[in-house]
Design the sequence.
């Protein structure tokens, strides 16, 4: 179980570290690469929790799909101009309050949770196949919300197409 | 000594061994696929192809590899050094990582994940970052355009190829590569016969995903010099090359596993023992085939012009003889050994047949224009894949609910899908005949 914890801290450090690097890079493409690393590290945490379907969905959707489009768009932008622009918003006060609130929340969570750095196993060795479990949940129990969400996404997609067309 | 080798250690050691074998053999294999490509091209153009290095150019890949390693490694002055360094590594790592779940025979598989197919698809789709970042980091217009084309192409065709795969997944009912092959054994039919249109869609999509002709726009030499690889040279360039060929084997492996029965031999569900022996006639076929190749090599050996070439040809013949010996010897071994050795043979045979089709298309079809490529992907392949998926799901439902034979319902599904395909193609012609007047 110590190995699990070590792996968790590795992925967590990777995720947090590259998230910080992502925000502080001046070069947008470097920022995107660090975001990819963050997403992959988060996927690693999913895998540690034996949620292999979530892991693979994270990799396929976020890393393999959305981030490719991100980079695609970034490459079309003229980086020379964006490098000269001011990188941060002037909302430090709001940000500080939010950060404090979030920090307090995390602190509480840690305080209420397990005290040990290397917790005992909380995940059973063998879980039911979670591809089937996710499918059962989506198409069985949560059928209606799932369909509503997909229609919402479809509407958004059509809206984007309509607005992107110059004159209709 | 032997009590150290417990099953739990074997469970760790064997996959590591397989991984080492794959990483070691793959560059060699890629080199020989390049040779095969040049030979096939030469044959289709009524030439001989490489003939000088070794008999019939058999040592050409080794000469090429040495040349590539000794070439000067150039990094452009204004390139983004970190990403320029990272990009080829990403490409080749992702290409190699995908082999972790590929079953080369029932025994030769590094890990049988229960999300195997998704894992391979996810990891090989990450290879695009190598291309995109490399193209951007080169700080060159040709490279950037090549990278942009590549990203657009991959995103468009991944959808179609994935939908093509799902039609076969419906029949298998599992994402584990091993279970997919076993499902084909149990149903007594390769899935290509149930969903030929799914196979066709996947094939077109996989050609586009691996940036092969006729969809090799990211590296179209007449327009973009070499696309995203323009600024790369020497070893880094050869890494991209290795990644491309490794990806070709991966997509061929996926197609083999899902549609062509994986490691199963043809007619795997029929068992016809030769009189008096436990050997089946079809199991004897591989060793006879390789024996034939060996005999041909020995026949050619004395005809080589130089002494060293005679020797090498004889060596190749000896190698084939050894392989034939292994294949024949496993006939008399336990069923597990037989399945393992012959499974690997059939898997590789199918992979190479699929790769041959890649080469065949490359030298047959002219390159698409970029708008034609996008039109084909979005307006023909994706709708067709969706229709194919729906008809196949309906066929499966009918055969389950009403007890009809799946063979009949799948033929009905194919007919309906073909009708829709013809309608789509007709519509597309009408559209492309009229000059596009967008937004009027």
Sequence:
């Amino acid at each position: 179980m110590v190995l699990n914890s070590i792996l968790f801290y590795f992925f967590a450090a990777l995720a947090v570290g590259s998230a910080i690097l992502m925000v502080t890079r001046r070069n947008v493409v470097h920022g995107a690469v660090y975001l990819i690393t963050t997403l992959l590290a988060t996927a690693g945490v999913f895998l540690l929790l034996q949620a292999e379907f979530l892991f693979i969905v994270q990799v396929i959707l976020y890393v393999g799909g959305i981030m490719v489009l991100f980079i695609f768009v970034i490459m079309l932008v003229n980086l020379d101009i964006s490098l000269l622009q001011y990188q941060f918003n002037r909302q430090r006060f709001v940000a500080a309050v939010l950060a404090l609130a979030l920090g307090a929340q995390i602190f509480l969570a840690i305080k209420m949770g397990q005290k040990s750095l290397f917790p005992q196993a909380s995940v059973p060795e063998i879980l039911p196949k979670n591809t089937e479990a996710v499918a059962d949940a989506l198409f069985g129990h949560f059928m209606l919300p799932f369909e509503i969400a997909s229609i919402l996404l479809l509407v958004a997609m059509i809206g984007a197409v309509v607005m992107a067309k110059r004159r209709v | 000594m032997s009590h150290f080798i417990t099953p739990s250690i074997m469970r760790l050691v064997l996959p590591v061994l397989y991984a080492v074998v794959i990483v070691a053999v793959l560059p060699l294999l890629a080199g020989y696929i390049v040779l095969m490509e040049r030979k096939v091209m030469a044959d289709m153009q009524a030439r001989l192809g490489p003939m000088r290095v070794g008999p019939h150019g058999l040592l050409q890949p080794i000469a090429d590899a040495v040349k590539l390693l000794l070439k000067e490694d150039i990094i452009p002055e204004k390139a983004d050094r970190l990403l320029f360094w990272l990009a080829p590594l990403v490409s080749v790592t992702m290409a190699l990582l995908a082999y972790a779940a590929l079953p080369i025979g029932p025994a030769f598989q590094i890990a049988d994940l229960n999300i195997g197919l998704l894992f391979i698809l996810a990891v090989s789709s990450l290879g695009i970052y190598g291309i995109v970042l490399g193209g951007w980091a080169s700080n060159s217009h040709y490279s950037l355009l090549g990278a942009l084309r590549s990203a657009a192409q991959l995103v468009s065709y991944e959808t179609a190829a994935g939908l093509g795969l799902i039609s076969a997944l419906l029949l298998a009912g599992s994402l584990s590569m091993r279970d997919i092959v076993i499902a084909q054994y149990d149903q007594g039919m390769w899935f290509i016969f149930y969903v030929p249109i799914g196979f066709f869609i996947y094939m077109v999509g996989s050609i586009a995903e691996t940036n092969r002709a006729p969809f090799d726009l990211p590296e179209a030499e007449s327009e973009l010099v070499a696309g995203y690889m323009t600024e790369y040279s020497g070893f880094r360039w050869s890494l991209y090359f290795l990644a491309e060929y490794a990806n070709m084997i991966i997509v061929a492996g996926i197609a083999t596993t899902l549609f062509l029965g994986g490691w199963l031999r043809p007619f795997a569900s029929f068992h016809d023992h030769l009189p008096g022996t436990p050997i089946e006639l079809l199991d004897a076929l591989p060793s006879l085939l390789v024996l034939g190749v060996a005999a041909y090599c020995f026949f050619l050996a004395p005809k080589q012009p130089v002494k060293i070439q005679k020797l090498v040809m004889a060596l190749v013949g000896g190698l084939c003889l050894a392989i034939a010996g292994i294949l024949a010897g496993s006939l008399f071994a336990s069923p597990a050994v037989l399945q393992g050795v012959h499974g690997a043979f059939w898997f590789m045979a199918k992979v190479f047949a699929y790769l041959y089709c890649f080469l065949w298309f490359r030298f047959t079809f002219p390159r698409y224009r970029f708008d034609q490529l996008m039109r084909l992907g979005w307006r023909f392949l994706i709708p067709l894949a969706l229709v194919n998926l729906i008809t196949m799901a309906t066929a499966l439902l009918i055969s389950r609910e009403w007890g009809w034979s799946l063979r009949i319902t799948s033929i009905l599904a194919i007919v309906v899908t073909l009708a829709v395909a013809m309608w789509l193609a007709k519509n597309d012609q009408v559209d492309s005949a009229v000059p596009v007047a967008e937004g009027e």
The CA atoms of residues 11 and 41 of chain A lie 5 Å apart. Chain A has two domains: 2-127, 130-168. The mean pLDDT of chain A is 82. Helices of chain A lie at 2-24, 28-48, 52-76, 79-84, 92-112, 130-141, 143-164.
